[in-house]
Amino acid sequence: MQIFKWGKVLAVAAALTVFAVPASAQDDEGPITQGDDARYVRVMHVTYKPGKRERAMQIIADHFVPAGEAAGTPGPLGVIHYQTGEWDAVFVWRLEGGMADLEWYRSANNIKWREALAEQEGGAEAADALMSEYQSLIDRSETNVGHYHDTEDDE
């Protein structure tokens, strides 16, 4: 456990150094940003209730993915199904509009996807029932936002 304690100490020290930059340096350079090559993502970790993971993945594969294809909306950049750890899966979604995408309660793509799901399922009521079933399978989830920088390979 000694490593864990040192990790906390180093994290706090690193955080404090962020505030040690003189204010004049920020004034001279203007606002500090992540750069034009920053690509923002929303990362959602999910743990399903015991015995419910398979049904959740079935709903995603048989209903959510086809609705996305019909709507022409982007799916996640990636999905990882964990064999170990506290989470069952992680979904990584690109925030095409950067951090501004987080300002939407329902984005244009979410609206298109929901409409396609409703059409596919036979109406909004059936789509809502499917969404409720999927939500009932989730024990807990956590969403974080981060960014990465494009590399020459990404272009």
CATH topology: Alpha-Beta Plaits
**CATH-defined architecture:** 2-Layer Sandwich
> How would a crystallographer describe the biggest sheet?
4 strands, antiparallel
- Kindly report the average pLDDT value: 82
Poorly predicted ranges: 1-26
Basic shape: globular
Number of discrete domains: 1
Give, in spatial order, the strands making up the sheet with the most strands. Answer: 2-3-1-4
Intertermini distance: 42 Å
Percentage beta strand: 15-25%
Q: How would you characterize this protein structure?
A:
- The protein is an alpha+beta fold and 155 residues long.
- It has one domain (36-149): Alpha-Beta Plaits, CATH 3.30.70.
- The protein is 46% helix and 22% strand.
- The chain has helices at residues 2-18, 23-29, 53-71, 108-121, 124-137, and strands at residues 38-48, 78-81, 89-95, 138-149.
- A four-stranded antiparallel beta sheet has the order 2-3-1-4.
- α3 crosses α4 (108-121) and α4 (108-121) packs across α5.
- The longest helix has 19 residues, at 53-71.
- It is globular, with a radius of gyration of 20 Å.
- The termini are far apart.
- Mean pLDDT is 82; it is low at 1-26.
